[in-house]
Protein: Cell shape-determining protein MreC
Organism: Candidatus Berkelbacteria bacterium Licking1014_2
Amino acid sequence: MNYRLLYFSLIIAIIGFCLPPAWPAKVRGIVWRPLIPLASRTTKLAAKTKIYGQNLIKINGLVLENEQLRLENSELTSRLSQLQETEKENIFLRQELNLSAVVGGGEDKIIAPIIARTASGANQELLLGKGKDDGLKIDQAVLSQGFLVGKITGVEAKTATVNLIFSPNSLISVLTEKNRAQGILRGGLTGLYIYDLPVGTTVEKDELVLTSGLAGEIKPGLPVGKIMAVNRSGSEIFQQAELSTNIDVNQINFVTIIK
């Protein structure tokens, strides 16, 4: 920009404003005539500035609208996630409530939420959100989807600890449903195994395994799993069977406790 021209124009403008009204219009016109180009440029600059300001306001409005839409989308995503999680919990609850056909009336069972999963060495445990105040006691059987997953080994007023059947220190008396072969179910790092099955007893693949109730700790007749394989040795008086179960304790949120 030519600053000299600008200064000169400003001086002329000041002179024009200071001219007495009594001066002839012709003289005043001579003074104002050099300012016409400056006025034209100023008008154009003002118009451009106005457009720039309007565009800036629009951009700011779009930014605010975009931020609002982003927040609304985030909120909707959160609500959808909560609804999906609630639906999963409802599915698990319906599965647990279907235990009525297996264990009898509702007064014989308590449904409890899992609030933590812990490990003590090789042992696996669950922490439940119900305890002594809800009627839970030590040695009560704990089921998921109709199958035994452990038993209660510790009880507080509002919580209870469950030792899972997958733990090496878990020992459960069981028998096969069809051939009534009896043994001891024990967990381990490699899976579930039934020990102390007499060699002369028939054990079939896919045969259902139930709790026997011999030790008096757990109610008899509760499903545990199915025979997956049988290991026999000619020099042993007992045979061993590997057990399979479809229950993944890392995917369940509720369990059923049998009184």
The first strand starts at residue 109 and ends at 120. The chain has a mean pLDDT of 78.
